[in-house]
């Protein structure tokens, strides 16, 4: 297949528009929104006819220039005919006896007020006690709701109600966010999609980009077509992912089938080759790297690939120490002092000495790569000026994820390949509004404006901005964020610990919003037990899910894409607006209205019970958002139409409050944005949406962070206190206890796939994605299959230390895993076939996450979804 064909096979224009028009259903109007699936964040237009969505197409005025992938192209299926997309929608609030958990049966329809009052009654009991720094009730949210909702989570959950709160971003972005704070001083993807056109070399680490962010992959194909072999690409992945189809091996592109979790060894080994071999330390100094470094420091030697000027001016070095870094969240940046090494070139000397142990021959066994391949990769890395590294879950979803990012940033820094067009690191996000979770402040460690919770100055500035001049309230907000005596951060539990403590009874109840942990979470048997034991499980969603089978309360939501107003932030920091195209079905309400209705009723209940101080505090926080609409929240059921109408104004208020409190936060400032600007203006390239930061009402946003333009604005190159990048000497470590052995000899990785989004809640109800991928499977290398006597299509049992699944084997000659590695998609749960309604017993015979481990990276607490030791048996 030619290069253009590879790109085209993933990029579709006007697919559903053509179908609608062939069926004589042309759209009467086109309404601007954003695709609700991946972190590419394609701008889309919903074609509306007689109040119904009839088609969807890419927005030609957006960065995606009219294109969408199969998931975006088939979105209209959710609104058409009598398909599961229409039939299955949740339309009424539901309640049931907790004893009846375990299936989707036995619910009764209730009014909004009955459902919310039931929750209020329970939660106000829970909030009489504490577990950790918070009350023992938790919200587990997602990267698929609006940024405004995420701000609500920060304002009312973390601060107002003082409950535990984390999002499913913990599973996919926590490593990147934490590592960026450590490296750069603040969170935020530093580069743009278009940087691929400026790069000479692309390193794609653990990122199945063609399948999981097809929108951005389209740009990479375009860049490769334009630049030909002047753009070299290295794909580092234990699975031969779809992106390898564009590699030209004869021209030097590389596919490196690395052993999972061993990227630090590979990165350090590339650095070793650059210093010891390409700079001539072995040849000219007989390997005496200290003597060579001294000559570099004195100026006697001018290295070819090491950027001494950049290091001297912009780099501080630290010892890579997981135990110390794990204390950052609670104790704040003073912990860096414990691991600080000399700065600038003296620190570089320590780095060069440290790398002695990473000779390619010495890491070949660990990484599974040949010394020759490591040398070729190192040569590619320093070829020409601009090298860009991009990575996603294969990097972050491992118990050593933070160390990988830090080792990679260090390599980019010492070679001066960071902080300009086409040079640097680009950790992306998987979910459509993954970054919104961080900017809104809905994940532990982040506060509104993507502030660092561990930073005292950030806590104080947030309290001040939110308090609107009321000093008493400012003190109260601050008290929710930090311990007044120790000045340590007061933090919620993170996701895995929320579920573990739900299981052991320390957390009493959970409210999930637009996420399906009974499929997506690691170690599903643990989640299953936790949800069964909880006193209260609330599920807020648009469709029945596997998690809903364990709910007592179900809250029907409007779909943010298509049925509500809001904003999303994509992987390149682009803020885009979503307009409402059609009314939600039945009594469904927008997420923000549901949450505010709960807080309103909870606050009234506290007042009635005499808990006046907490009630007054919540009233103060609610006021600027719902002022003038209070009577509507008194009787939600009677005011559904009015509350839907009020939604747009409430979203505007939330957005402008978030914009206000974000002012001054480097790289994350959206104070120059408003709904008005998002609707009427375009960015500097003429596309809809603006990339953060947007500093004032005439600013058009920044293309990238930490380049000269950034430095000119902030008077510092990086967002650390002294403006220097933090670089680390990190050894290859694997903190999780699990590894392969004689009993569990295979390494399992659980990726996403092109056809389905997350747990198939929506794509499983769209005809084409469902038909293409109706069930789960296990992909296995042909040599491993032969050894195990497995033929294509045989049923196999895959078992880890936590559970087992039974799926068909696919002897994969396309997306082939390296020998010893197997992969299966994690999208499938026990609801099985959503078209026929065929179900299984929970947690599901082919649910991949039954196998995965909830061990996590000690710093980011992101679980290890990309490695589990398994055994395989033909059945
Ligand atoms: S799934 Fe991603 S690439 Fe596909 S249309 Fe949606 S945002 Fe674009």
From TrEMBL:
Pfam families: Molybdop_Fe4S4, Molybdopterin, Molydop_binding. Its EC number is 1.7.99.4. The keyword Metal-binding applies. GO terms for molecular function: 4 iron, 4 sulfur cluster binding; metal ion binding; molybdopterin cofactor binding; oxidoreductase activity. InterPro entries: Asp_de-COase-like_dom_sf (IPR009010), MoPterin_dinucl-bd_dom (IPR006657), Mopterin_OxRdtase (IPR006656), Mopterin_OxRdtase_4Fe-4S_dom (IPR006963), Prok_molybdopt-oxidoreductase (IPR050123). It comes from the Bacteria. The gene is napA. Signal peptide: none annotated. One of its GO terms (cellular component) is membrane. This is Nitrate reductase. Residues 28-83 form the 4Fe-4S Mo/W bis-MGD-type domain. Keywords: 4Fe-4S, Iron, Iron-sulfur, Metal-binding, Oxidoreductase. PANTHER family: NADH-QUINONE OXIDOREDUCTASE SUBUNIT G (PTHR43105:SF10), RESPIRATORY NITRATE REDUCTASE (PTHR43105). Gene3D superfamilies: 2.40.40.20, 3.40.50.740, ADC-like domains, Dimethylsulfoxide Reductase, domain 2.
